[in-house]
Design a protein that fits this description.
Elements (H helix, E strand, L loop, with lengths): L1 H22 L3 H51 L23 H9 L28 H9 L4 E3 L1 H4 L2 E3 L5 E3 L14 E5 L3 E2 L5 E2 L12 E4 L2 E4 L9 E2 L29 E5 L4 E4 L1 H4 L12 E2 L12
Parallel strand pairs: 7-12
Antiparallel strand pairs: 1-4, 2-3, 2-9, 4-10, 5-6, 7-8, 10-11
Length: about 300
């Protein structure tokens, strides 16, 4: 009897398996599986995205450290002075006479890729960044490519360039011996070239950036912290001057700087340290208003100024 029962049970099991296979998958089962996969995707995608962003930020930080080391080597070779931001005003015909600070530092870093942020979504590709017209001369293309560096130079405080009354351009880089707080003074920061009408970054980065504030309240009235020589006709800058409201379409909404890393700015300090900072840190010590209308209330806290 046991043997007969075993045979019947086995036949019944096979029959049930065959019926299950013939039945297929129901719509409800597909929806359940799809729902589970959607939940897993919703949980895992932000984690994956955050990991990718963190890797890009880490790669960018390595680039900044290389630039910081290159800056230190340059200063060591040039009696402590920072490299000129430029030697001429940047115009379409200046490439054969001018050189950007990015080009000046290239022998110390070895490759232009160091100046490209992997988080820059507006860059069309290394070597193909949009420039002003077609460049038949390779040197022209190389020059204008260097102006699209994602590492923007705090040039007004560290290495301004002026046009004299004779019409000649004169770079006036400062010496590191005049820097009061090298560990808390910005040397370079993440940057962008331009924005579309909808505020989307395009064109890569900018080799120079401008600070959010200019004037400070001093004991004898208002102090111009740029401290430009009085006998110059014009200094190299941008119109409109200063940072612009966040509601504007201007690329100068943050003075040319841009928070490529999850709403944070990668910053290189003069001492070579690299930090990721929120917008609030860039405005520390400064009562920001568009067009440099705000006042610097603490030059010790204001991390753009050399505090001379």
């Amino acid at each position: 009897m046991a043997e007969v029962g075993y045979t019947v049970a086995t036949d019944s099991g096979n029959e049930m398996m065959m019926r299950t296979q013939e039945r297929g998958v129901t719509l409800m089962e597909v929806l359940v599986v799809t729902g589970i996969l959607s939940i897993l995707f919703a949980i895992l995608f932000p984690v994956y995205r955050a990991a990718i962003d963190a890797a890009k930020a880490a790669h960018c930080a390595i680039n900044y450290r290389q630039v910081g080391a290159a800056m230190a080597m340059y200063r060591s070779d040039h009696d402590g002075y920072f490299p000129p931001a430029n030697y001429q005003g940047v115009i379409s015909s200046a490439a054969d006479q001018d050189r950007s600070w990015v080009q000046t530092l290239l022998p110390y870093v070895g490759h232009f890729q160091v100046f490209v942020c992997p988080s820059d979504t507006g860059r069309t590709g290394l070597g193909t960044v949009s420039t002003d017209g077609t460049r038949d001369n390779p040197w022209d293309a190389y020059y204008f490519e260097s102006l699209h560096s994602n590492i923007g130079y705090n040039f007004i405080y560290l290495s301004p360039i002026f046009q004299l009354h004779s019409g000649r351009w004169q770079p006036m880089p400062k010496s590191e011996s005049h820097i009061v707080y090298p560990s808390t003074t910005i040397l370079c920061i993440d940057s962008l070239w331009d924005r579309t009408r909808s505020g989307v970054p395009i064109g890569g980065g900018s080799w120079v950036v401008v600070p959010p504030c200019r004037y400070a309240d001093g004991g004898n009235g208002v102090v111009d912290t740029f401290n430009f020589p009085g006998d110059v006709r014009y200094y190299f800058g941008f119109e409109p001057e200063g940072w612009q409201p966040e509601s504007s379409y201007s690329w100068l909404v943050y003075g040319g700087a841009w928070p490529w890393h999850r709403e944070r700015f990668q910053v290189l300090m003069i001492d070579g340290s690299v930090k990721r900072m929120p917008l609030s840190a860039l405005l520390s010590g400064c009562d920001f208003l568009p067009g440099w209308e705000g006042r610097i209330h603490s030059r010790e806290e204001y991390i753009w100024d050399t505090d001379l």
